[in-house]
Amino acid sequence: MTNSPAFRADGDYRLSPDSPCINSGSNQRWMSGSIDLDQKPRILYGTVDMGAYEFFESLTITHFSAGNAQSTWTTLPGAVYQLQACDDLSTAEWVNIGSPVTATTTELSASDSTAADHRFYRVILTEWPAEEE
Ligand SMILES: [Ca+2]
Question: Domains in the chain, please, with CATH?
């Protein structure tokens, strides 16, 4: 590989969402059920990443008040994401917030104008990025 691996920061060898190392390793039999240096699954999104860490999307609630919750998450460009919310985890009834969105960059944001006093959020990957030729 001749391109920069696009680590997250100096001395932090986790991968940025635009890293060419994402999904560019070679899956080996021993990796199934193994973990990376962050104790996450060694293989996420079908193919192992080059390096010691698997890239994964992280969701951050950047603002929360009744009627206005804003979320931001890291994305793989070309992948389609759906933000979901749940008011009671014991029911596990997740509802879509807005429509699925295709990531064009390495970050997406969404707002929830129906936020109650408390609410749980998750983001799901509904469609993989198209294979690069
Ligand atoms: Ca991967």
Answer: 1-56 (no CATH), 59-127 (2.60.40)
